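Last lecture ended with a question: if I hand you only a sequence, what can you say about the shape of the protein? Today we answer it with a concrete record. The protein is Villin like. Below, first the input exactly as provided, then the predicted structure, then a couple of comments.
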Amino acid sequence: MYNIRRLLHVKGKKHVSATEVELSWDSFNKGDVFLLDLGKVLIQWNGPDCNIAEKSRGLALARSIRDDERGGRAQIGIIDNEKDSPDLMQIMKTVLGERRGALGAATPDEKADELQKANVRLYHVYEKDDNLVVQEIATRPLTQDLLQHEDCHILDQGGFKIYVWRGKDSSKEEKRAAFSRAVGFIQAKGYSATTNVEVVNDGAESAMFKQLFKRWTEKEETQGLGKVYTTSKIAKVEQVKFDVSQLHARPELAAEQRMADDASGKVEVWRIEDLHMQPVDPRTYGQFYGGDCYLVLYTYLTSGRTHYIIYMWQGRHASVDEITACAFNAVELDKKYGNEPVQVRVTMGREPQHFLAIFKGSLIIYEGGTSRTQNNEPEPVVRLFQVRGTDEINTKTIEVPARASSLNSNDVFLLTTNQVCYLWCGKGCSGDEREMAKIVANIVSKRDKQTVLEGQEPVEFWAALGGKAPYASDKRFQEPTVRYQPRLFECSNQTGRFIMTEVVGFCQDDLDEDDVMLLDTWEEIFLWIGKTSNTYERNEAISSAKDYLKTHPAGRDLATPIIMVKQGYEPLTFTGWFSAWDPYKWSDGKSYEEMKNSLGDVSAISEIAVDLNNANLNKRNADSKPASPAGSRTERTSPAYKPHPKSNVNSTSNYQNNNAPSVVSAVTNGNGAYPREVLINKTVDELPEGVDPAKKEYYLSDADFHDIFGRSKDEFYQMPRWKQQNEKKQHGLF
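The predicted structure:
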């Protein structure tokens, strides 16, 4: 839906969240972030005194709204300095009116954190012995695993809004009672009678709901969180509460991620080029470049039935347009196969186990560049690749910075130059790893191969890497017989009690600044202390690490060292267990700047594809007439219809029309057409006079009609009636 107009206030330091506020300059202050949502345009206004956490969370929210609720078709603009963004400010003034007076200071973030933590409460609604129970289970910060699919939950945002989350396996009685109790909260807690109660269905959560949680994993998503979830039609996030004996008794937590099949199916690969799908030469299947996006269609048989998986692989350096086009083409490919495929978004470096397996050990990820034929960028003379895996199922090769500090005694590395390709074998690597590296070496280089053992490197080897340098070479990484897989656990007390949750297939991104993380490397136990973790978590982590050793079924040595590592001061003995460790990851402002730069140059409105008509804006009116002041109830209406009285019922779409200037076009093209916003999702009483409610789509302009339905009116009315009705329902015109 694009007929939306709202203002979101992003506030906090540790517990940053957004709330919807009045669409007015009176809601603004100098110390926070505000997100103006106009449907196809999202403008983030950063106060001069706001903190980096608010900027990052605001931009993450804007991107989530764009990608998950607008199909990637909305445009995002950022105002860091009003003087540098005159065109974006013009849009804000058109919507909000001229600003009168100076902006005030913000409430201190520390106080806001306390209020948010106290005010945001999650309740569990479930049946027990024929009785309905409503029980408070957590305050901020909330985690997704608190939501039980077989029950319902009420999330009270301190009177700003109340959400009713309905689990897909919950009963009708639970759903009915949850909504009734949520409405009862309004009076019981003394909230305003206009407090909105919004129903949220399991699997279809809005961005505003998800942002109240510390982290959120979408179905089939592999980005950033490192949790285990299946590649079935209904993805399920499996997370386990802390029980030290259970951690050892559940082998699936420490083993590979589940496989959809044995990876013997058919593989097809396309590269996104000029926003379209371009077939990739089958001889290069498995080679992915960080500057590109790819679609991979995997077809396999199960019980005699054909199944499909569409992997959307997104390069770290791909443009926003390419990422959006990748998602759009995935939808088109999905339609081609009858909407049957499972879609999996794969972020570079976070490839799931099955993705590795379908390329039979030949998955090679280049840090940058492109595989396009017209690529004019010269390839680096020296490249370094890290090979991890022991067979065709689990081997992945990634390009790492070509310097000595990237080496790791536990793995095999390929160093390619103009003269030779070195196979560098660390002391801790196995024979199987060396054999897989030989296969990969024949793909990445046609030069002569030279095997080099750690400690016996020729001078030319170090010269190619720019000289010797310290790397992860501690003998603790060497396994005499069985290679032990390190295990990472998140330690947190967000539910009021201390729990540990394992992170499978972990990487540096899984280290959460708000928590303590436990890394078990067998000979050592590392406790990684996040900058904003609390004292209770730190103390409990130490005692739990001791209990973890006591209950380990292998009879661990209780004298195993427990090492505390502070965020930003990690030694090589810790970072060596992570692939491609970035020592600058937690530099102040980098994450926000990276997200901002990924949007491209959006400072000028001419470079944002804004549908001003859809946003209820009219630039000519804005230039010649002052916009209605924010909060004004005066509306300019055309003689084509008279507005009906406003309803007092709160809409879950959050479409606010009272506070915004309404610029409604009269009849266009001489055929009685109305703007889409006065027709979509409108009741009979809200429609303009003379509009047949059974044929609302007929009153759209030809351009709007084609934009919404993707076809002309003549083509639409030639379709079967049932199909017409389905599409009208889908677009809010039924």
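Comments.
1. Residues 362 and 443 are 8 Å apart (CA to CA).
2. The first strand starts at residue 6 and ends at 11.
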